[in-house]
Amino acid sequence: MMFWVGTTDTRWFEFLAPRHLDEVNFWQPSVRSAFENAPSGMPFVFKVKRPHNHIAGAGYFITRSVLPLDLAWEIFGQKNGAASLAELRELLGPLVGRGTPLTQITCQVIANPVFFEPQDWLPDPPGWSSNIVRGKMYRTEEAEGATIWAHVLPLLARGLEAQAEATDSGALVVNEPAARYGEPILMRPRLGQGSFRVVVTEAYNRKCAMTGESTLLALEAAHIVPYAEEGAHDVRNGLLLRADFHRLFDAGLVSVTPDMTIRVSPRIREAWFNGKAYYRMDGQPLTVTPTRPEYRPDPDRLQWHLKNRFQA
Question: Shortest CA distance to 238 belongs to which of 194, 188, 298?
Fold first, then answer.
């Protein structure tokens, strides 16, 4: 199995460690990825920078996305490792070139983060060089990776057990194989609200499923079965929708059939004497669907929405 050890800002670590969050944004100011095509569920280990230079925590990688800084704050808030957007900008400031406006950051979404107690930190990770800036990939089958993973795994497992007890739910679910990064990873974390939004956004290629709109700030991840009614933060329980369509979908004024056809309720006309722009879409197929079959909307959940929410 492969896992990533990423270097992190000490202030980021110290801010998040006492907060017991379900997910965090392990950001980087560069839009260039330190690694490509990592599977959801890959272990992601935190290494704090100087003066410590210790491995001090771990979690599970969910996805990577380049987002406008303001939107990253809207999605993750203090899960970015700062108390305010202004403080986040301050953290990022020394990491970008002088005079370079910072408009986007790379968000590496980490679920089920566990922050170790200082007495459990691992100094001087094997194979680590002082010129490594962002991180390094290790394999558990190799000596260096095995040494690190033997230290991290029991601490991570103990932290995950505590999280599961605190939420009264299992922390992990089965994940699909990921051949490029070694043996299949059998477990991955449940998505949090921020992870759900980012994963759905990327699954739909940053376009509204109904209209094809690609203005990122206008797009939202809608739950097909509402989260409040046992609807999971699951990409197959999501649709990426323009904000107005999201509101209409939640209100049952638009829906999607299990064969991916858009339905528009006559209640828009009856109650508001309007809706021409929406009625043109009635009976049309979704404009955008995920290319990966395992990310496409669950037909049973779409049927649930038609039956329980849609005002036919």
Answer: 298
Q: If DSSP codes are grouped into helix, strand and coil, which group holds residue 6?
A: strand
Tokens read off for 168: 């009264």
Does 18 sit behind a cis peptide bond, omega within 30 degrees of 0 on the bond before it? no
Structurally, the chain folds into a number of domains equal to: 2
Express each pLDDT in 95-113 by its tens digit.
776 666 778 899 999 999 9
DSSP-derived pairing of the beta strands 122-123 and 23-28: unpaired
Summarised one tens digit per residue, pLDDT across range 191-212 is 889 999 999 999 999 999 999 9
Same domain, 152 and 198: no
Q: What is the CATH number of the domain that holds 148?
A: 2.30.130.30
Rg of the chain, C-alpha, whole Å: 21
* Domain match, 156 and 202 both: no
Indicate the residue among 189, 219, 246 that finishes a domain.
189
141 and 13 assigned to the same domain: yes
Structure-token pair, residue 101: 């406006």
Q: 124-158: buried (b, 16+ CB within 10 Å) or exposed (e) per residue?
A: ebeebeeeeebbbebbbeeeebebbbebbeebbee
Report pTM.
0.85
| 61/43 Cα distance (integer angstroms) | 6
Q: Are residues 156 and 216 in the same domain?
A: no
Lowest-pLDDT choice from 68-77, 132-141, 196-205, 279-288: 132-141
Residue 143 domain boundaries: 2-189
